[in-house]
# Entry
Amino acid sequence: MTELEQRRRSVQTALAGSKAKIHKADALLVSSPANIRYLTGYAGTNGLALVTPSETHFFTDPRYALEASESITCKLHIAKRALIEDVAALVKRRKLKKIGFEPLWLNLDQHQKLKDLLPLGASLLPLPGVVENLRMTKSPEEIDRIRKSVRVNSEAYARTLRRVRLGMRERDIAAELDYQMRLHGAEKPAFDTIVAAGIRTALPHAQPTGKRLEENDLLLIDMGACLDGYMSDMTRVAFLGIPTKRVRSLYNAVLEAQMAGIEAVRPGVTAARVDEAARKVLKRHGLDRQFVHSTGHGLGLEIHEGPRIGKKDQTELRAGMVITIEPGAYIDRFGGVRIEDTVLVTANGCEVLTPTTKEFVHL
# Structure
């Protein structure tokens, strides 16, 4: 059994094992692109999968017929009409009655059309998180792909940082980062690369602008690579010149918080406890109100996956999960610092996959 087949079998087992909870769902309609790729390997732009307790059906259109026929290992349907119409026809042929769907991904038009086409007695049931819960724990092959993505990301950062000079614009640096990622094997950035300088580093998700680097600017770079479908994520902060005591103190406080978060990562610990470990350090430094986001998130086929490393997430960490640890502190009209690594949960603790130094680099 291939890894894709094992994943589909896991979804089928989840369907069969939760019938009471989901009112005896006969199938799950998968419309999330990441979930479809996870179950079938398909990375195109038009596809649906219908998983029943005994088989999986994949639907796409004639543009992808050749590619799908060579790679799809479940039951393949090439639709010459809207995919949702072929799904409804199969539901009718198989006499399926309760169809689970992903409420975050099936759009209103598709939902209404499918509802209208279902045979008498059939109904739709929102069924979130079935595939996402499986995706949280990565296989050895997935971990290997994330490792490669992390290495490409760090190499792109290192090569770009050597080119940074006073007077460069934020968007120049972002363009160089994206270029270096692709040059070293990434298919694309994992998200829109964040580059912020000076007081703009106080904006956690600042988009690169035409602002030019000046002496005594903080420089925050948050970047990730997508390689073979798998994401990496890293944030580093450098300084142009000799940092003041206040800047050093801010950086050291965030680094201490980040290390505390990493130290807390191990199987059986809740995501909330990891968040708390980082947050306590920043509170001790009087920076708790300047920490305005969660400590991290899972990643894999998407840049943001479960678990959320936040105050309320009671998900217990398991070996094989890959998460980020990224506390930050942001001071209006002064600047901000965030330090982020991609971290693998192991049987005995964790492994920081990101090789880039966390020393406070002065340019």
User: Anything to note?
Assistant: The first strand starts at residue 27 and ends at 30.
